[in-house]
């Protein structure tokens, strides 16, 4: 008997739904293990349990989907670019499309009243850019995906630093890692900006938004170093 082959978009969607459902059912347990608000510079953002969910999603799932997508396109960047130009996305990409958007959107019903204006603006700009990259500029998805992975790994590092700000060197490590990751983000941005098949509007928008995000995030990381002395270092 022949096996039924599901559309890659459906497979990707199912992967995303399974991940989101797993997080949803695990929230109560995560809250018990990681109670209370974050400490340190980012204490006015999210509770500790949200940081744990962020580490799992941003630091593990999203990078894993990137690697899987690269493998699904034959481990070739040129094939990947060609496939995305033809809108032939992999199941891992569809999972990324859904998970990333859902992860951002979930903050609104959960933290609408506590969400700072700057964080709200970050979410709105990121969601708009996410949709534009998928719908209007599919040819740049591989580079966009790589940039998002670097940004999300930086956010995961921020979550770890927010969970344990008293650990010796953790804020400094977060800062240095962010510098490295932002270099990777800017590299992805330059690759998109120099693509001949990208319209000028897409290039300008990508440069403007990427530099804004990188500068803003690095500035926040610099300020986070200033409060590190408030915590007794623990080896």
Largest sheet: none
SS summary, helix count: 9
Overall mean confidence score, pLDDT? 90
Broad shape:
globular
Structural class: mainly alpha
Flag low-confidence runs.
none
List keywords for this structure.
235 residues; globular; mainly alpha
Task: Report on this structure.
The structure is a single chain. The protein is mainly α. The protein is built from 9 helices and no strands. Helix 1 (8-33) packs antiparallel against helix 2 and helix 8 (170-193) runs antiparallel to helix 9. The termini are far apart. The mean pLDDT is 90.
SSE layout:
Layout: H1 8-33, H2 48-72, H3 77-85, H4 91-105, H5 107-111, H6 117-135, H7 141-163, H8 170-193, H9 200-226
Summarize the structure.
The protein is an all-alpha fold and 235 residues long.
